[in-house]
Amino acid sequence: MHKYTLHAHDFTVQAASLTSEPDLTGSAQTPTVDDPSNPTRVIVYTPTGAAAALRIAQRHLTLVHARLAYNNPGSVNRTAADTVYAEARSRAEALTPEQRRDESLYALHSEDDALRMDALNDVMEERGELGA
């Protein structure tokens, strides 16, 4: 497992300044940003190399942007991914806990599916339904 640190500008990964170091913990960890409102650095953990780290980092920035657009309307210009997340989030909030649990078992086939699943997981986490 390696820890990759990537710089970001306007919610886009800057591949030119990628750094890598062995991760001392050896366990899988969630990608993180230094500032959700204006990320300048993304940290990704992956055993599969720099190309995977770039993809993971960009996907994470897309999710951070979508969450920011949803929770603070007007704070960022909305993108298509933000709309997908917002629609999925609204749909997930309207479901019962059992329906959300069933939805969480669906397979992911696209980036939009991944955003929809993130929205579903955000709602389930807020309502204490994960890990139950």
Q: In what range is the share of β-strand residues?
A: 15-25%
Give the oligomeric state of the chains in this entry, treating copies of one chain as homo and distinct chains as hetero: single chain
Biggest sheet, in brief? 4 strands, antiparallel
Query: What structural class should be given to the helix and strand makeup?
Result: alpha+beta
Gross morphology is: globular
Task: List the uncertain runs.
Answer: none
Tally of helical segments: 4
**What order do the strands of the largest sheet run in, or round the barrel if closed?**
2-1-4-3
What proportion of the residues is helical, as a percent range? 40-55%
Distance between the termini: 29 Å
Q: What does the average pLDDT come to? A: 91
What is the number of strand segments? 4
Helix and strand pattern: EEEEHHHH
Task: Provide the gyration radius in Å.
Answer: 16 Å
Provide tags for this entry.
single chain; 132 residues; alpha+beta; four-stranded antiparallel β-sheet; 4 helices
